[in-house]
TrEMBL record, chain B:
Residues 1-29 are annotated as: Disordered. Its cofactor is Mo-molybdopterin cytosine dinucleotide. This is Carbon-monoxide dehydrogenase large subunit. Pfam families: Ald_Xan_dh_C, MoCoBD_1, MoCoBD_2. It comes from Cryobacterium serini.
Length: 295, 797
């Protein structure tokens, strides 16, 4: 049994109560959501909060709803909820694809989207997904609510714009008609963190050309979307030659490190290979959805 | 060419399943396990019990400058902090290993691997013990480490074991088997010779339950009770007596339920000794249970063999000879567990299942700044490495000769009429009939059809591979004339008592870690005595309750202890005959046995059941001369030879050409473990071992960086397979009994772990044939497979 350093524990009863507790206990207090990132770090004594503020009673943050042109996901929505949602499968198959390969059922039953985004692990899958979907993060603190684009929210590995006395409340994803999206990951074993992964979202115009596209990469040293790809794809009809070019650009844009999961050139190769695969799948799904989605 | 053809199966196998003692019965131990009522070391709570925690070295090689325990001792819940200096004063700083070396219990002079034991804290609870570790101040003078075994013997390499008088290098031993001159001569005149460096990387058994102990030393009567995670309670007791000076009759070692061993729980770890010292020092029971990282970083690893293999053959595919030079990384202390005279275990069974004209191997053991160990993880004393070497070499030869690997194997098997077969390195294989086993696996796989499918797929650029492994195991150690561990013969005892009402208790010296002993051994007695297995209690794991014997590892329980149990039951049966004769007022030779009963020849209605005889024995029947009033017996079994189970495995993989990801699509395993007792338990052992094999082949690897930091210290980094990585196992069997075992059983515990890695790797290499890949080392992770496709295979170490 791995034993964390001593800490105190309190359960928050509401969002306001959680914010008040964060304020009261100060710099060395942390909220715990699913605990699947924080607790392992505490057991290894890499994280040593004095206070744990448990937000698992905040059912008001555990929701998922289609609200006009956006999908709103509460910060406490569990991975399993996302994985099993038919709305998500229909609107954002990239999320379903990603959730299928995030950890294992035990972790997915507890881990939350809020915890995932706030942890901002470079190998974390939902950050890439949110970048690709141009999600907006709703953050609440003593001074009220802020809305942040992913570019503003996500400041780099293990770093976000959420201050110590703030909570991530909700993630909003704009719903686009005639769109398709996909995610694919290479892992050494089921439940392992990504060696590399890629996600793409594509919107097709009425003429069948790509009107909007975003490609994101996981675990290869790129904290943004592959903007280079957008310039090349927008306005073009999807073809294999374009996907190949997009893959090439993705492999150039990333900046992976060599580790036990693989050497740099392999990870660059995966950025290329997986970019091609997810663009192919996203375009296929977009074409199929042209007649399906109406908002 | 068609390799698949029907051939009559071995008549001894009978083509039928003839299990012993009620066959496929459910396991007697399972009701407690499935209800969460198993009782493990960590479940033990004694009155007044304290808790220990170990401070471990953060670096791989460093001189210990100073330790300051003041702050830790000031912690309100801490009762003692023990350092190497304290142990030195007691003469306990170093303990003997199972390989005639010594290992530091706590560092006194120098840290020799990352994770080595530096100090031991005893506190009121385990949380305080853990917290207090951070209060110990240690100063280290960091030294350059030896991480790569290939560089351990370089002139100028840092000398790791400067504690050993006169040591000037990192050399441990050189060992050889076979005839070098004869082998070299065969190689010199062979048509075809192929060579390959083959690395079996360092892996770890990673049992679900980590190691731990509860030590309870009673200062009044000087008695030590030690609850331990051990596969060998009796051997541990003897060694504790020899090291600690506590007389053996005052030591009781109890091994309760064990959550997996795989050889990880054979040795004596510093933590066990520290729990004992902690109890002596405080006068209270002390519990120590390591965490997952401690288990992975400091306890017995497996393999770490760098093998230069060479195989010689005629151009039409008759294999003539094998030779190999092995560099063995034993870590910082030579603590491998194997019979004393075999420093490389049974590696010299590397001749495999083939009839060779010559064979020769050398093994050189070296020290490195890594955790000690080497023999673990269901390896049958290094048969794992041996089988991997020969089964890879045969595949490489098949490629060179452009022959089908199944055909090459079939052509070179030892023939049934050659058994007992004396191989070129000194083994006598007890029995075998390899071809029917091989053919059955091919039939189950649909081998010819798979090859056709592969051909079509290759034409389309898809990567499908078919891998074969045919292994011969060497288990059941072992005859006292040939082997011992630290002077202890490798025998096992058994005691059987039939209670007056005909229920029984059998006491055995081996210790289950999940193998199902409480069922299998009851079934053996049931078969011999004719009472139901439910009426037979199997007692094991407590030195006060059981006869002496060397424990469970190397698949030895059924071959050795199983034989003891069969023989003790036969002894009781014979005794019952005399008592029955007295009861029936006839002569013993006039009685005949049927399961559970002696009856008068020619008059089956007159007889006595075992229960009636037991009551008679304990009752008032006038007993014949020399027969005592009980129905009990005991034996100690010294096996006349080892047993040699074998099997044919076929693995089918699909490799994603874009990512290098390997999917094991099918796995066919045909095992021959001689007489089968409980087929369900056998299949369970095989399923587990095959899963191990897929894990080793695809993902498991204890890696170190250049500074000697262990990179496999958690389950995030040391990957073990899940149900998602393995296919539905397709198992089959043949039966070739062991001629020297009382019931013909050979043992099955490690066959699948030994036999499966080469099948998986052979399949991956076969899939990569279009890229010209002839060999790749484990683990076949996506990255390493992709590198192989780029022509950049590289050894893992
Ligand atoms: C074995 C294993 C495998 C995994 N594999 C993957 C994988 O393949 N891919 C992947 O993406 N993830 C993986 N994960 C991580 C998993 O998805 C985690 O659940 C997730 O990263 C964190 O979510 P959580 O709710 O558990 O957060 P917690 O661990 O509770 O919290 C993480 C951090 O976020 C903060 N936090 C949590 N909620 C909020 C909030 N609402 N507002 C502000 N701060 C907050 C916490 O204070 C903490 O600092 C794995 C985890 C494990 C244990």
């Amino acid at each position: 049994m791995q034993i964390p350093a001593p800490f105190d524990y309190v359960r928050a009863s509401s969002v306001d109560n959680a914010l008040a507790l964060l304020d009261r206990h100060g710099a060395e207090s942390r909220v715990v959501a699913g605990g699947h990132s924080l607790l392992p770090m505490m057991k290894l004594r890499l994280a040593r909060p004095d206070w744990l503020i448990d937000i698992n009673d905040l059912y008001e943050l555990d929701y998922l709803l289609v609200d006009g042109p956006v999908l709103r996901i509460g910060a406490m929505a569990r991975h399993t909820t996302l994985l099993e949602s038919d709305d998500i499968k229909r609107l954002f198959p990239i999320i379903t694809d990603a959730e299928r390969v995030i950890a294992d059922p035990i972790v997915r039953n507890r881990g939350t989207i809020g915890g995932s985004l706030c942890q901002a692990d470079p190998a974390e899958d939902l950050s890439t997904v949110c970048h690709v979907l141009e999600a907006v993060a709703v953050v609440r603190g003593p001074a009220g609510e802020r809305m942040l684009s992913m570019a503003d929210f996500h400041r780099g590995p293990y770093e976000t714009a959420v201050a110590q006395n703030e909570l991530l409340i909700e993630v909003r994803m704009p719903i686009r008609a005639s769109s398709g999206s996909a995610y694919e990951k290479v892992e050494r074993r089921v439940g392992d963190w990504a060696v590399a992964a890629a996600g793409a979202s594509v919107t097709l115009g009425s003429d069948g050309t790509i009107s909007h596209v975003a490609v994101g990469l996981t675990a290869v040293g790129l904290d943004r979307t592959v903007t280079e790809v957008e310039a090349v794809l927008v306005g073009q009809a999807p073809t294999e030659a374009l996907f190949v070019e997009a893959g090439r650009l993705a492999s150039l844009a990333c900046d992976p490190l060599a580790d036990q999961r693989g050497p740099i050139d392999y990870k660059r190769h995966l950025a290329d290979e997986l970019t091609r695969r997810v663009l192919r799948a996203a375009c296929r799904r977009a074409a199929a959805s042209v007649s399906e989605i109406t908002i | 060419m068609t390799i698949l053809e029907d051939r009559p199966t071995n008549p001894a196998a009978g083509g039928h399943d003839r299990p012993i003692g009620h066959g496929r019965m459910q396991r007697k131990e399972d009701p407690r396990f499935v209800r969460g009522k198993g009782h493990y070391v960590d479940d033990i709570v004694l009155p007044g019990m304290l808790h220990g925690a170990i401070l471990r070295a953060p670096v791989a090689h460093a001189r210990l400058v100073s330790i300051d325990t003041t702050e830790a001792l000031a912690h309100p819940k801490v009762l003692a902090v023990i350092t190497g200096a304290d142990l030195q004063a007691l003469g306990l700083a170093w303990a003997p290993t199972l390989s005639m070396d010594v290992q530091a219990v706590l560092v006194t002079d120098k840290v020799r691997f990352q994770g080595q034991e530096v100090a031991f804290v005893v506190a009121e609870d385990r949380y305080a013990a853990r917290d207090a570790l951070e209060l110990i101040q240690v100063e280290y003078d960091v030294l350059p480490p030896v991480v790569d075994a290939r560089k351990a013997m370089d002139p100028g390499a840092p000398v790791i074991r400067d504690d050993l008088a006169g040591r000037t290098d990192n050399h441990i031993f050189d060992w050889e088997a076979g005839d070098k001159a004869e082998t070299d001569a065969v190689f010199a005149s062979a048509d075809v010779v192929v060579s390959q460096e083959i690395v079996y990387p360092r892996v770890h058994p990673a049992p679900m339950e980590t190691c731990g102990a509860v030590a309870d030393f009673d200062p009044i009567d000087g008695r030590l009770t030690l609850y331990e995670t051990t596969q060998a309670p009796h051997a541990h007791r003897t060694l504790f007596a020899m090291v600690s000076g506590i007389p053996e009759h005052k030591i009781r070692v109890v091994s309760p339920d064990i959550g997996g061993g795989f050889g990880n729980k054979v040795g004596i770890y510093p933590g066990y000794i520290l729990a004992v010292v902690g109890s002596i020092v405080t006068g209270k029971p002390v519990k120590w249970v390591e965490d997952r990282s401690e288990n992975l970083m400091s306890t017995s690893f497996a393999r770490d063999y760098i093998m230069q293999g060479e195989i010689a053959a005629t151009k039409d595919g008759k294999i003539l000879a094998l030779r190999t030079n092995v560099l063995a990384d034993h870590g910082a202390f030579n603590a491998t567990a194997q019979p004393t005279k075999y420093p490389a275990g049974f590696f010299h069974i590397f001749t495999g299942s083939y009839d060779l004209a010559a064979a020769h191997c050398t093994v050189t053991g070296v020290y490195t700044n890594k955790a000690p160990g080497g023999v673990a993880y269901a390896c049958s004393f290094r048969v794992t490495e041996a089988v991997y070497l020969v089964e890879r070499m045969v595949d490489i030869l098949a490629r060179k000769l452009d022959m089908d690997p199944a055909e090459l194997r079939l052509k070179n098997f030892i023939k049934p009429e050659q058994f007992p077969y004396a191989n070129k390195t000194g083994w006598e294989y007890d029995s075998g009939d390899y071809e029917p086993t091989m053919r059955l696996s091919m039939k189950m796989a649909g081998y010819d059809e798979l090859r056709r499918e592969q051909k079509e797929k290759r034409a389309r650029g898809e990567l499908m591979g078919i891998g074969i492994s045919f292994f011969t195991e060497t288990v059941g150690a072992g005859p006292r004339k040939d082997m011992d561990i630290l002077g202890l013969g490798m025998a096992d005892g058994a005691e059987l008592r039939i209670h007056p009402t005909g229920k029984a208790v059998v006491r055995i010296s081996v210790q289950s870690q999940g193998q199902g002993h409480e069922t299998t051994f009851a079934q053996i007695v049931a078969e011999e005595i004719g009472i139901p297995p439910e009426d037979i209690d199997v007692v094991h794991g407590d030195t006060d309750q059981t006869p002496f014997g060397l424990g469970t590892y190397g698949s030895r329980s059924t071959p050795v202890s199983g034989a003891a149990v069969a023989l003790v039951a036969r002894k009781v049966r014979e005794k019952a005959r005399f008592i029955a004769a007295a009861m029936l007022e006839t002569r013993p030779e006039d009685l005949e046995w049927e399961k559970g009963r002696w009856f008068v020849k020619g008059d089956p209605s007159v007889g006595k059941t075992i229960a009636e005889i037991a009551m008679g024995a304990h009752g008032t029947v006038a007993l014949p001369e020399g027969i005592e009033g009980n129905l009990d017996a005991e034996v100690t079994y010294d096996p006349p030879n080892l047993t040699f189970p074998f099997g044919a495995y076929i693995c089918v993989v699909d490799v994603d050409p874009g990512t290098g990801h390997v999917k094991v699509r099918r796995f066919i395993a045909v095992d021959d473990c001689g007489t089968r007792i409980n087929p369900m338990i056998i299949e369970g052992q095989i399923h587990g071992g095959l899963t191990d094999g897929v894990g080793m082949a695809l993902m498991e690897f204890i890696e170190f960086d250049a500074e000697g930091n262990c990179l496999g210290g958690s389950f995030m980094d040391y990957l073990i397979p899940t149900a998602m990585e393995v296919p539905d196992w397709e198992t089959g069997f043949t039966v070739t009994p062991s001629p020297h075992h009382p019931i013909g059983a050979k043992g099955i515990g490690e066959s699948a772990t030994v036999g499966s890695p080469p099948a998986v790797v052979n399949a991956v290499v076969d899939a990569l044939a279009p890229f010209g890949v002839v060999h790749m080392d484990m683990p076949c992770t996506p990255a390493r497979v992709w590198e192989a496709m780029q022509g950049r295979t590289r050894p893992p170490v």
